[in-house]
TrEMBL record:
The active site is at residue 217. Coiled coil: none annotated. Belongs to the L-aspartate dehydrogenase family. Specifically catalyzes the NAD or NADP-dependent dehydrogenation of L-aspartate to iminoaspartate. Residues 7-116 form the Aspartate/homoserine dehydrogenase NAD-binding domain. Keywords: NAD, NADP, Oxidoreductase, Pyridine nucleotide biosynthesis. The iminoaspartate product is unstable in aqueous solution and can decompose to oxaloacetate and ammonia. It is an enzyme of class 1 (oxidoreductase). Its EC number is 1.4.1.21. It holds the Pfam family Asp_DH_C. This is L-aspartate dehydrogenase. It comes from Parasedimentitalea maritima.
Length: 264
């Protein structure tokens, strides 16, 4: 297994530390050309620094996307067509039908696979099993402290810099709209949608809550299987209050799962 990392932000840096501790090496970084100077600091020893899939060392087998929607859309298809397996945390990018189709056809062409890390949420296995029966409704609520929504469309309706008097909903609608409008904040909505009833039937509510200091994600689902409610209170990464540590941990788990003879 020869690993290249796409992006060198908060999730990528967590992943680097964790997989190096497991004895795995990072052979290369795929970075934006304009960020290669400032982004190249890493804990990996002497990795190749490139800005396109074609410039990656020939023996790379896996591209790990920790860069967000644009990075996946830009480099995911080329990597898959070249036969690299891709692990991504940028699940919301798949809400765009053109990107989705491009990823599917590229993987088919390259004989490769796109692996979706579970991200900041759990219970996706429950949804996947439940949808083989009739899954009637899936509702996802994402709640973060106000600073976790900075840089998102929440800024258009809420003053996130001053103290909000109470929890404020700034989005309700289908998962597709949430994922496309909040590329840095609603990847969980997309993961829930893909595991369950799809982008258009999954109902989403996004809330800025001044009374909390963690990222709280909740799924309520019902169907032939019965019903369940899943809630997680996730610590954010020290480098980025928008992103939960579990999202980075889920990328590490996907990487470590690749070489295991038994998948659990
Ligand atoms: N599935 C999930 O539960 C979660 C998914 N995410 C996704 O992960 C992404 C990354 O999160 P963080 O590391 O916290 O963000 P960050 O902002 O700390 O890091 C992003 C990194 O990606 C790089 N980048 C951006 N566009 C790029 C491109 N086109 N090509 C190459 N590199 C590019 C940036 O320069 C930066 O190094 C988020 O934008 C979000 O879409 C984040 C949290 C949870
Ligand atoms: O990290 C989180 O808590 C969730 C997140 O940003 C996303 O869904 O994109």
């Amino acid at each position: 297994m020869k690993i290249a990392l796409l992006g060198n932000g908060a999730i990528s840096r967590y992943v680097q530390q964790a997989i190096l501790k497991q004895g795995l090496h990072i052979e290369a970084f795929l970075l934006r050309p304009q960020r290669m100077d400032e982004d190249h600091q890493s804990v990996a020893s002497d990795p190749a620094i490139v800005s396109s899939v074609t410039a990656l060392p020939q023996d790379i087998t896996h591209l790990i996307d920790c860069a967000g929607h644009q990075g996946l859309a830009e480099h995911g298809p080329a990597a898959l067509r070249a036969g690299l397996d891709v692990i991504t945390v940028s699940i919301g990018a798949l809400a765009d039908p053109d990107i989705y189709d491009d990823l599917v056809s590229s993987a088919t062409q390259g004989g490769s696979r796109l692996h979706l890390a579970s991200g900041a949420i759990g219970a996706l296995d429950t949804l996947r099993a439940a949808r083989s029966g009739q899954l009637d409704s899936v509702r996802y609520t994402g709640r973060k402290p106000p600073q976790g929504w900075i840089g998102s469309p929440a800024e258009q309706s809420l003053d996130l810099q001053s103290s909000l008097p109470s929890a404020q909903t700034h989005f309700t609608g289908p998962a597709r709209d949430a994922a496309l409008r909040y590329p840095k904040n609603a990847n969980v909505a997309a993961a829930v949608a893909l595991a369950g009833v799809g982008f258009d039937a999954t109902e989403v509510e996004l809330i800025a809550d001044p009374t909390i200091s963690s990222n709280i994600h909740e799924i309520c689902a019902s169907g032939d299987f019965g019903s369940f409610t899943f809630s997680i209170t996730g610590n954010s990464l020290p480098d980025n209050p928008r992103s939960s540590a579990l999202a980075a941990m889920s990328v590490v788990a996907e990487i470590l799962a690749i070489n295991k003879p038994i998948s659990s």
